[in-house]
Amino acid sequence: MEIVNPGNEDYHMHSINYSDGLNTIDEIVKFAGEIGLKKIAITDHNQAYLDARTFPRKSYRGIIKRWQNVFNNVKVEFGVEADILNSKGDVCMDIQGEIPELIILSTHQSPPYQEDSKTITEGYLNAIERFHDKINFLGHPCSVYHGENVDIIAVTELCNKYEIPLEVNGANLATNRTNLNKLKQMLSIADQIYVNSDAHTLNELKTVRRKAFQYLRENGYIKGKYL
Ligand SMILES: [Zn+2]
Ligand SMILES: [Zn+2]
After folding, report:
1. 109 alpha-carbon distance from chain centroid
2. Which ligand lies nearest to the CA atom of residue 44 in the structure?
3. Which of 115, 142, 180, 218 is at 20 to 30 A from 173, Cα to Cα?
4. What is the DSSP track for 111-163?
5. Domains of the chain: which residue ranges?
6. How many angstroms does the Cα of residue 42 sit away from the middle of ligand 1?
7. pLDDT digits (tens, 9 = 90+) for 135-158
8. pLDDT of res. 72
């Protein structure tokens, strides 16, 4: 098992500008520099997720093109946390109609998933077959959101086939929203994993990725020094 981002790089977090984080993009980037991160991706939720939760639109996405880091040398990318919508594997991957380069494939509670949770594995497998060339990694595939219904072995095997990493999600681990049985199954066969915070607060940006590495160390998946 290879960890794609063993160092000071975090590819999953949310802002208040485009979804449900508590901090602005500028606050996140400034703080990322203060805690020694070298590269971050701000990956807000897709439009279907935002519409389902009636989030007000706070910032226009077009402004992103004019944003520049004035605080430090942290490299900043803007991505999206996409949602699988149904068992056919339709995926919402835009924010205000714009599709970023970096795409995390996730699922959450219904909505935005439009069918019974029992069909979620089919949704994953079809979405991966259809969009494997666009998807950068799977976000929290072992979350509790769809209960026991995710066949994590089948999903992980298909990710391995297309060389798509799967995520160990710090915030989900820290707040007991991880199905630990599924996580063990995933880690037993996954070729590549990301370790990300999924931070919605500055405290999570600072602490939960470290907790994820601690979990991996305590359970014998990694040895030696990580964060
Ligand atoms: Zn998520
Ligand atoms: Zn997230």
Report:
1. 15
2. 2
3. 115
4. TTS-S-GGGHHHHHHHHHHHHTTT--EES-TTBSTTGGG--HHHHHHHHHHTT
5. 2-218
6. 13
7. 999 999 999 999 899 999 999 999
8. 98
Q: What is the pLDDT of residue 225?
A: 72
| Positive/negative CA dihedral, 101, 105, 107, 113 | positive
What pLDDT, on the 0 to 100 scale, is given for residue 65? 95
Cα-to-centroid distance, 14 and ligand 1 (Å): 9
Distance 154 CA to ligand 2 centre (A): 23
From ligand 2's centre to the CA of 156, what distance in Å? 19
Ligand closest to the CA atom of residue 20: 2
What CA–CA distance (Å, rounded) separates 84 from 92? 7
Architecture of domain 2-218: Alpha-Beta Barrel (3.20)
The C-alpha atoms of residue 169 and residue 211 are separated, in whole angstroms, by 10
110 alpha carbon – ligand 1 mean position (Å):
12
Radius of gyration of the chain (CA): 17
pLDDT tens readout for residues 180-200: 999 999 999 999 999 999 999
